[in-house]
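The following record pairs a protein chain with its ligand, adenosine-5'-triphosphate.
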Amino acid sequence: MTSTDSSKPLHVQQVIKTYQQGTSKVHALDRVSLTVEPGEFVAIMGASGSGKSTLLHAMAGLIDVDGGTVTIAGQDLSQLADGPLTRFRRDNLGIVFQAYNLIPSLTAEANIRLPAPKKMGGELDAKVDRLLQRLGMIERRHHKPGALSGGEQQRIAIARALICDPAILLADEPTGSLDSVTGTQICKLLRRLVDEERRSIVMVTHEPHVAMWADRICVLKDGTNLAEIQTDGTRDPQTVARQYQEALGGEVLV
Ligand SMILES: Nc1ncnc2c1ncn2[C@@H]1O[C@H](COP(=O)(O)OP(=O)(O)OP(=O)(O)O)[C@@H](O)[C@H]1O
């Protein structure tokens, strides 16, 4: 697997997203800012409803924002029409969801190939092989998602997200459907993608023992930046949990 272009940071500047819920307005994001450097792993934490998924979706260009900018590799996403945005997303971002979102009727291998443009030709076969090897899934390549465990399905979803060699991976609760042992395996895999390939990762999570794999934790509250926590690399969930609680002023989390 090739390493990625290291000149592709992600900047979120003063982003606003407001939803109408009945007669009231919900400020899902209220001037949130975040910069992610090449080869940096950032976790986004916050209580339920604090705006984590909305922020990730804004970074992915999956929702329009009402103010501020999301810039990836120097490109302001709001300046792209639908078609160019889809292509830009494919070439620059990999996205991983809690529910894996694999196509049940396709084999693991076919799911990985799905986002690849036709022009990749024979290069694609080699790339799929490398990804299956890298993620320990070579023996499972012909299985359909229904015959794979949750952890295996998430590995395939990560391979699919990497097929176009994006510099940035966005992950929304990637371990949320997994037991803690399998979840840790996925966290270690994500960490390796940062350490060995210098990819940038932004991951939404509720869990201190998942967030501890990041370099930095961005804590949101009510759609605003509340705090930044630098993890110290000791991977101690208790320390991260305590720092997180302190950031929230001792509030009990949902
Ligand atoms: N499509 C939508 N329509 C209306 N309101 C929305 C929509 N999406 C999100 N919201 C609201 O925006 C706020 C932030 O939601 P968001 O899903 O980003 O929070 P979250 O931190 O990811 O929560 P959770 O941890 O529960 O997934 C919430 O009040 C939510 O109800």
